[in-house]
Design brief:
With 268 residues, the protein is α/β, with parallel strands linked by helices. It has a single domain, classed as Aldolase class I (TIM Barrel), CATH 3.20.20.70. It is 41% helix and 16% strand. An 8-stranded parallel beta barrel has the order 1-4-5-6-7-8-9-10, surrounded by 5 helices. Helix 9 links the parallel strand 9 (213-217) and strand 10 (236-239). Helix 4 (73-83) packs parallel to helix 11 and helix 9 crosses helix 11. The model has no long low-confidence stretch (mean pLDDT 95).
């Protein structure tokens, strides 16, 4: 029986094949937005006085179903920015997450924060497409790519001045880290079972070379957790569901940042 990751990869291959019939890389490169100067995601995460939080906009997920179908992406993005987000993550996958690349375009028009395109990248075509839509960084998922593909895709992204998060889930994926990767993200969600275990971050961080920015993803829901992850050596945190599950995600984000600030002060 095909697992979630297999289903989404199969779906994405078909989707990209159809897109390539309609558009070419040259179409993307001719667009004005493609030539804009990108904003460094890694630099924003590592700002000394910053939150380090990549705040995500996500409508639904395979593990939780519908999370938030009423909040407008522009309102949430501006609220995240006002609350101190280091960057924004926009989930653009349509079939399983109800995202759309149009969300990226909408957010790019209203913010100067770096934007991560969160999707399942299986073809270099999507890298050029991501820049065309206004993203500053892409996510490469180690579980759906081999080492050669990760290196090739990361190199292409860097050539067009985008940054790369390599997402890993297990010790076996550590070998996929390469010179073109900017940020290593440890995803606490098991992509076979969809269960979350934050201890994954603590187990894997020691294996990541010090010259990479390190972020923890999924299942981060409390200021205490942020404090413990920072102490372990994480520079940043990708959080979406915790905010998006609330009636007013931007307000939830603001309150969370205040609580994190107070917790970090108490720990000093």
């Amino acid at each position: 029986m095909m697992n979630f990751l297999g289903k989404i990869t199969e779906s994405k291959i078909k989707e990209v094949e159809l897109l390539k019939e309609r558009f070419s890389v040259k179409d993307f490169e001719r667009d004005e937005l493609f030539s804009r100067k990108t904003i460094s995601l890694s630099a924003s995460i590592k700002k000394p006085a910053g939150t380090g939080i990549i705040a995500e906009f996500k409508r639904k997920s395979p593990s939780k179903g519908v999370i938030n179908m009423h909040s407008a992406v522009e309102v949430v993005a501006k609220g995240y920015e006002a609350g101190g987000a280091a960057a924004l993550s926009i989930l653009t996958e349509s079939r399983f997450f109800s995202g759309t690349p149009d969300d990226l375009i909408s957010v790019r028009a209203i913010t100067d924060l770096p934007i991560l395109r969160k999707d399942f990248i299986i073809d270099e075509f999507q890298i050029y497409e991501s820049k065309f839509y206004g993203a500053d960084a892409i996510l490469l998922i180690g579980a759906i790519l081999d080492r050669k593909k990760v290196t090739e895709f990361a190199r292409i992204a860097r050539e067009i001045y985008m940054e790369v998060i390599l997402e890993i889930h297990s010790p076996g994926e550590i070998e996929m880290i390469n010179e073109y990767v900017n940020i290593v993200g440890i995803n606490n969600r098991n992509l076979d079972t969809l269960e979350v275990d934050v201890s994954t971050s603590f187990r894997l961080i020691e294996k990541i070379p010090d010259d990479f920015v390190k972020i923890s993803e999924s299942g981060i829901s409390s200021p205490q957790m942020i404090a413990e992850l920072r102490k372990a050596g994480f520079d940043g945190f990708l959080i979406g569901e915790h905010f998006m599950s609330k009636p007013y995600p931007a307000a939830a984000f603001r309150d969370f940042v205040i609580a994190v600030s107070e917790k970090l002060k108490d720990n000093d």
